[in-house]
Specification:
single chain, 30% helix
């Protein structure tokens, strides 16, 4: 609190609580399925997802960032047919 300021001087006081963490365990062989399931379960929650892989010791920021990077790469795959290929004729 700033010295000399009173609650009447400030319109409102904002308090920030600790963000809840949700840990999920995923398989490297089923990244998209795991991502879809995690979104189904936690999309409406105000929490931070933390990822760990089955059979691996690591958890925390590293595996979590890797998970989202790998999922985004999978979503860019042409085999999913989500994106137009510049080599194919336009419709």
């Amino acid at each position: 609190r700033v010295q000399g300021s009173s609650p009447q001087d400030r319109p409102s006081e904002v308090r920030i609580g600790r963000i809840q963490r949700q840990k999920i365990r995923v398989s490297r062989g089923r990244l998209l399925g795991s991502a879809m399931r995690a979104l189904e379960l936690y999309a409406g929650h105000r929490s931070m997802l933390e990822v760990e892989y089955y059979g691996e010791a690591g958890t925390g920021l590293g595996p979590t960032l890797e998970f989202f990077t790998l999922v985004s790469q999978e979503l860019q795959s042409s085999k999913l047919g989500l994106w137009r290929d510049s080599a194919s004729p336009s419709a």
